[in-house]
C-alpha cells in the first residue's frame, strides 16, 4: 500500500514538474522569439535569457519543496540584483528582459496551482501581453542627446538660440529641439554643447565598468 502511495506521489510530482516546465518554456519562447528578437535582432542575449530562465526554474522547483518558497524567492532576487555585466554595454531594456526571464522561472516553479494552473497561466499571459504592448509603444519618443564640439561660437549667445538649433539640425541631420552649453574655449573658438533630439529608440545604456572596478 505504501508503495502505491509513493508511486502515485512520484507520478503527481512528475506531472506537476512537466506541466510547469511546459508553461515556462512556452512563455519563454513567446517572449524571446515573438517579442524580443523581432524588435532587437540580438541573438547574443537570447542565450543568456534562456539559460538563466531554465536553470532558475529548475533550482527554484527543486529547492521550493523545502517549504522556504517566499524567503528563497526573495533571496534569489537579492542575488540577481547585484549581478551586472562588466565588459559590455547593456541597454536598460535588455536588463528588463533579463529580469522578466528570471521572474518567469521563479513564478512558474513556485506559484501555487490549486486551481489547476489557471492562475499561473493567466499570470504568464498577462506578463507576455504587457511586455508586447510596452515594446511596441512607437508613438512614445525618447529624448536622446549628443555631445558636440561646436565651432560657430558666435551662435551660442542666448539671442542666437534659434539660429544655433537650425545650424546644428542642418549639420547633424537630427531634429534638435534644445541645446545646453557645457563649456566654452575662447582660445580655440569652440564650445562643447549637448544637443537634444527625439527618436523612437533610446541611446541610454549602462556604462562600462571602470578599469579599477574590473580589477576588484
Q: What does the model show?
A:
The structure is a single chain. The chain is elongated, with a radius of gyration of 25 Å. The protein is of the alpha+beta class and 216 residues long. The C terminus is likely disordered. The longest helix has 39 residues. The strands form two sheets. It has a three-stranded antiparallel β-sheet. The termini are far apart. Helix 1 runs parallel beside helix 5 and helix 2 packs parallel to helix 4. It has seven helices and five strands, in the order H-H-H-E-H-H-E-H-E-E-E-H. 59% of the residues lie in helices and 15% in strands.
The description of the largest β-sheet is: 3 strands, antiparallel
What is the helix content?
A: 55-70%
Quickly count the helices: 7
Spans of at least 5 consecutive residues with low confidence: 205-216
Mean pLDDT: 79
Structural class determined from secondary elements = alpha+beta
So what's the overall shape?
elongated
- N-to-C SSE string, H for helix and E for strand: HHHEHHEHEEEH
Distance between the termini: 59 Å
Q: What is the radius of gyration? A: 25 Å
Query: How do the strands of the widest beta sheet line up side by side?
Result: 2-4-3
Number of strands: 5
What's the oligomerization state?
single chain
- What share of the residues does DSSP label as strand, in percent? 15-25%
Amino acid at each position: 500500500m505504501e508503495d502505491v502511495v509513493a508511486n502515485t506521489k512520484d507520478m503527481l510530482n512528475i506531472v506537476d514538474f512537466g506541466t510547469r516546465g511546459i508553461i515556462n518554456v512556452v512563455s519563454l519562447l513567446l517572449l524571446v522569439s515573438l517579442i524580443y528578437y523581432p524588435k532587437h535582432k540580438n541573438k547574443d542575449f537570447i542565450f543568456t535569457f534562456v539559460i538563466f530562465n531554465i536553470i532558475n526554474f529548475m533550482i527554484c522547483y527543486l529547492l521550493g519543496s523545502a517549504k522556504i518558497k517566499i524567503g528563497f524567492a526573495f533571496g534569489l532576487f537579492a542575488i540577481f540584483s547585484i549581478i551586472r555585466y562588466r565588459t559590455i554595454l547593456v541597454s536598460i531594456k535588455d536588463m528588463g528582459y533579463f529580469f522578466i526571464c528570471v521572474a518567469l522561472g521563479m513564478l512558474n516553479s513556485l506559484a501555487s496551482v490549486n486551481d489547476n494552473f489557471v492562475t499561473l497561466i493567466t499570470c504568464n499571459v498577462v506578463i507576455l501581453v504587457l511586455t508586447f504592448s510596452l515594446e511596441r509603444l512607437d508613438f512614445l519618443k525618447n529624448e536622446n542627446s549628443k555631445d558636440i564640439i561646436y565651432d560657430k561660437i558666435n551662435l551660442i549667445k542666448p539671442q542666437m538660440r534659434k539660429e544655433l538649433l537650425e545650424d546644428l539640425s542642418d549639420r547633424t541631420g537630427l531634429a534638435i529641439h534644445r541645446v545646453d552649453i557645457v563649456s566654452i574655449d575662447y582660445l580655440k573658438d569652440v564650445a562643447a554643447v549637448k544637443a537634444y533630439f527625439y527618436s523612437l529608440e533610446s541611446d541610454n545604456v549602462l556604462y562600462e565598468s571602470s578599469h579599477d572596478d574590473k580589477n576588484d
